[in-house]
Amino acid sequence: MKKVTIIIFLVLTMSSCYKTISIDGFDKEKWVNNLTACSSYRNDISTLLLDNEGVILKSTQNEVESLLGKASEHELYERNQKFFHYRLSPPDSCGQEETLKYLSIRFNAMGRANQVQVMLREANK
Fold first, then answer.
1. Is the Cβ–Cβ distance between 57 and 116 less than 8 Å?
2. Origin, by domain of life (predicted)?
3. Is the four-CA dihedral 99, 40, 44, 108 of positive or negative sign?
């Protein structure tokens, strides 16, 4: 029983060993709520995120998720790289746009962010 308690303690300790990141002027609640709203907060704040690219590039996948929440899309790339795509354009229910805008963050095989960019994609018609 003592071994089980120690193992559980170690697992919990190890899983909480990442720092949280923050960017001045970024409101996570607005960011998350804007996913279903017709406002342009995500698009407007993307400039702030790109200006603070250095903060994101020093971060792990868990730290980015704690800042931005779950990505709109995940993409597994070659050599265990991952892309998180966060939709910046308003949802389809607000009116169909010709081009959709995404914040794309690439993570290396070690789970560290190594690229931040804004992508444009044709909307599915």
1. yes
2. Bacteria
3. negative
